[in-house]
Design goal:
The chain has 156 residues and is an alpha+beta fold.
Length: 156
């Protein structure tokens, strides 16, 4: 009986290891960015030290309603999201949005693709209370800066 239990336990451990290693794990980033149109593209790039440059990992086409969903296996690193108008080509040195993909999970991003600026990122590290507070302060700073620009403009 003990031999049978040992074999059952061994088979169970091997099967668990097999299924955990073969499971495809991905990050899913969904977005609703202003100034994105159907047919525009969203690229995810990450830095590859061996090539000493940013390399395209994944891309997707923006849907009719201006939203997008992109999956990537990048994790525990900063990636760049590039928003490229239909017909244009990607330049990894142009404007982008930094997103830190803490583990594997679901992320949601909102903002303006033409700036690009991020109004809100949800998921992973962005759900930590300290990050929520930092986002709140960043938004307040943005409002103050807009008021400053308005005052400067009216002084001229």
């Amino acid at each position: 009986m003990k031999k049978v239990l040992k074999w059952v336990f061994l088979v169970f451990i091997v099967l668990c290891a097999f299924f955990s290693l073969t499971q495809v794990r991905e990050n899913t980033i969904t977005g609703n960015m202003e100034n994105l149109s159907s047919g525009d593209k969203v690229y995810v790039t990450s830095y590859h030290a061996s090539k000493k440059t940013w390399v395209v990992d994944d891309s997707t086409v923006v849907e009719k309603d201006g939203t997008f969903t992109i999956t990537t296996t990048d994790k525990n690193e900063i990636v760049h999201l590039h928003f490229v108008k239909a017909g244009d080509s990607l330049d990894v040195n142009k404007a982008y949005v930094n997103v830190y993909l803490e583990n594997l999970g679901k992320y949601t991003i909102e903002g303006d693709a033409s700036l690009p600026s991020v109004k809100k990122i949800v998921g992973g590290v962005y759900n930590y209370p300290s990050m929520i507070e930092l986002d709140s302060l960043k938004n307040k700073m943005g409002d103050i800066y807009e008021q400053y620009k308005s005052i400067r403009k009216s002084d001229n």
